[in-house]
Specification:
By secondary structure, the protein is mostly helical. The chain has helices spanning 3-6, 23-39, 46-50, 63-109, 129-145, 151-155, 168-184; strands at residues 19-21, 56-58, 125-127, 161-163.
């Protein structure tokens, strides 16, 4: 009996020809996250959970179920970080830091549409510009005017590719920063 089959699956397993997240990789990461959270240390944080990735394999865990669990783990780490920040610098200091981070994002998104992020060359694919600008407008509306937007909507932002599109790493970094701000003020 293999290690994977000797214990009950933590999540539903994909069937048929579909692929899912490598079960042992997910289990190992979540065990490490649990230990880090219980130890109340700084070894692992919300950002580490957000950027976690796993190989796709047959008989793996259902991606959506693992992603939902990871979102809850990220929320728990972010809540703990928020509590620490409030203890360290007080509510006023914490609010000022969150406002400063939000203003940095707004300043970036204040750039003209189609010019908010670096672009790839015409022969290289990047995120589709109009789709990113749409999400950017929604984020700006949330931060500036309090329009409706959830952390899950930002986390689940996905963009088609186009030649000469926005550079993925820049867009992803802004989305991550937005999630950080949203979790900080939750």
């Amino acid at each position: 009996m293999t290690e994977d089959s000797s214990r009950a699956a933590a999540f539903p397993v994909v069937t048929g020809r579909q692929k899912g997240y490598h079960r042992a990789a997910v289990d190992t990461f979540l065990d490490a996250a649990r230990r880090a959270f219980e130890a109340d240390g700084d070894d692992l944080g919300a950002e580490d959970v957000r950027v976690a990735s796993f190989p796709m394999v047959r008989d793996g865990y259902v991606v959506e179920d693992v992603d939902a669990a990871l979102a809850r783990v990220e929320d728990a780490f972010a809540a703990r970080a928020r509590e620490r920040a409030v203890r360290r610098s007080g509510v006023d200091g914490w609010v000022a830091a969150a406002r400063e981070d939000a203003q940095l994002i707004l300043d970036h998104l204040g750039r003209a549409r189609r010019h908010r992020f670096g672009r790839n060359g015409i022969l290289t694919f990047g995120y589709r510009i109009d789709e990113v600008d749409h999400v950017a407008d929604r984020i700006a509306g949330f931060l500036r005017d309090g329009e409706e937007l959830t952390v899950e909507q930002v986390r689940n932002s996905a963009f088609r590719m186009q030649r000469g599109g926005y550079r993925e790493e820049q867009v992803d970094a802004l989305l991550d920063a937005t999630v950080d701000v949203m979790l900080a003020v939750r």
